[in-house]
Amino acid sequence: MFAIGVEGELMPQQDKIIIQDFNFHYSVLLALHNIHLTIKSNEIFSIFGPSMSGKTTLLKSLNRLTDLIFRVRHTGAIFLDGKDIYDPEVDVTQLRRRVGMVFDLPTPLRMSIFDNVAYGPRLGGIKEKKRLTEIVEKALRSAVLWEEVKDRLHTSALRLSGGQQQRLCIARVLALEPEVLLLDEPCSGLDPISTLKIEESLIELKKEYTIVIVPHNVQQASRISDRAGFFLSGELVEVGTAYQVFTKPKDKRTEDYVTGKFG
Amino acid sequence: MATPARYLTQKIAKALVWSAALSTIAVMVLILFKVLSEGLPSLGLRFFFDSPKEMGREGGILPMILGTAALTAVALSVATPLGIGTAIFLREYTREGRISRMIRFGTDCLAGVPSIIFGLFGFVFFVIYLKMGWSILSGGLTLAAMILPTIISTSEEAIKAIPEKYREVSYSLGGTKWQTVIHTILPSALPGIFTGIILSIGRSIGETAALVLTAGSSLLMPTSLSSPIRTMSVHFYILATEGISMKMAYETGAALILLVLFVNTIANWLLNRYVRHRS
Q1: What is the per-residue pLDDT across A158-200, written as a single tens digit (0 to 9) for each?
Q2: Check: CATH 3.40.50.12780 for B47-278?
Q3: Is the pLDDT of residue B1 over 60?
Q4: 3-state DSSP helix/strand/coil percent for chain B, to nearest 5?
Q5: Hey, what domains does chain A have and what are their CATH numbers?
Q6: Mutation site, A102, A110, A114, A158, interface B, largest B CB count within 10 A
Q7: Looking at the predicted complex, does its ipTM rise above 0.95?
Q8: Which pLDDT band holds residue A130 (cuts at 50, 70, 90)?
Q9: Taking the mean position of all CA atoms in its chain, how far away is CA A59?
Q10: CA of B180 to nearest chain A CA: how many angstroms apart?
Q11: Rounded CA gap, A238 and A251, in Å?
């Protein structure tokens, strides 16, 4: 398999994330059951399915945000570049910098646009003003927001529109220079034009990042993903290339969901 | 369409809530009017900058103002970090369990203890046992114990009100727990925490019983943290109850009210500025 790089070159794709026999429990509720899945570098992988199927749980397991929840447990393993992320020696903050996450609703922190994007780098210990300015500009450009906000970087992020706020959240994650981007229904509260802008930037971003997205509907999944996995009640029903999953699904349940018979 | 009965209920309810609100305001206005009308007319600037003479029959209340301010400062500088720290511990560093329940039970008890008991404790522990004597320090530490529950519970409420998503964002950007507390949680909770501090300042300035026992009733100008002092409220109490001078008592009362108003106005102004700056 090959992906197209920043300069249009062909790059061999590697197995970026390998999920092996992964089970996840909330208290007594089994949220993910026996997941085996490989996500390749520089692809957009869609995790789709009806609500309560474990999509967000899987996403949050990939950067261990599930650690914040009380009374959860898991079995199995998740490897990032061949290293188990649940290994006791793993520095969780470091892991979260490598695997950045964008949430379903825009969540700007109550500070300026600049400070929002600089939040992660600052926590990482970067203090030099010039370096921060560079990082912020680069991140905002990658998230296709720079032109709209470059003259008001120091005004409150809360004054941006919903679509701009969500791109700000993407920029905030990009400022960490992660390797993997997790997006949990990033367009769920947005209008079609903002959605289009975010989708365009994602397709641009996959040249540099591995993207795992929970799309907010089947149409979005089919528009942007390279490969997709269909989840139902905590199980991975089917996985394949986007073309195959959305046009010639092998499993009856996938077909019913994709064609809108339920969901 | 409202039936006549419903219409009547509406009217009665409206009358009730209006009269409740109006009587509250009336009580407030009455108290303020009484004290200010007795105290203000003869109150001059000199009163704020003079030492008392002849047991307070003449002169001003400068030592009391300074003493009250120093006492409040000591109490706040001890109780604020302790209180905020405890609140952060309760909300961010521990799950709901035996320890958190014990701490909450403790602070609730502390909040319900009459102030004279705090005074007795302060007298026995700080004044006698630790040999601090009647002093700003003894009084301030006693006050700190009294305002601690307020600061803990208001800070805890303020931290609890912060949406979970802000924590998630901070952690997802590679923040440690401490970084999340410092950069996300405290800045958002600050207005609420500030409210608790303002309430505590009011309580510190108004406290009397506990301070007679721990800070003393000296008329001298305080020179250090171990100086005995007489707070404005204690001064007011002594002037009025020992029949020294009702006129001076009212003047002290008026000065006390003005001081509290002044502190609250400044605090609110600072708070508004902070909130505006952040949004």
Answers
A1: 999 988 999 999 999 999 999 999 999 988 878 888 888 889 8
A2: no
A3: no
A4: 80, 0, 20
A5: 14-258 (3.40.50.300)
A6: A110
A7: no
A8: very high
A9: 7
A10: 9
A11: 7
The β-bridge partners of A20 are A77
Distance, in angstroms, between B85 CA and closest chain A CA? 21
Nearest to A109 among B166, B176, B179 (CB): B166
- CB-facing half-sphere around the CA of A102: CA atoms within 13 A: 31
pLDDT(A9) > 80: no
List CB contacts of A32: < 8 A, sequence separation 6 or more.
Answer: A22, A23, A24, A54, A57, A58, A61, A74, A234
Overall pTM > 0.95: no
Which pLDDT score is estimated for A74?
Answer: 92
Strands A83-84 and A29-40 come out as unpaired
User: Which of B95, B165, B167 is the closest to A70 by Cβ?
Assistant: B95
φ/ψ of B225, rounded to 5, equals: -65, -20
d(CA B81, CA B148): 10
Q: Please give the single-letter amino acid code of residue B273.
A: R
Of A153, A151, A19, the C-alpha closest to A74 is A19
Q: Please, what is the end-to-end C-alpha distance for chain B in angstroms?
A: 44
Which of B210, B36, B259, B224 has the alpha carbon at shortest distance from B136?
A: B224
Distance CA B112, CA B57 (A): 37
| pLDDT one-digit tens code per residue, A49-92 | 998 899 999 999 999 999 888 889 999 999 999 999 999 999 99
Whether the predicted pLDDT of B190 surpasses 80:
yes
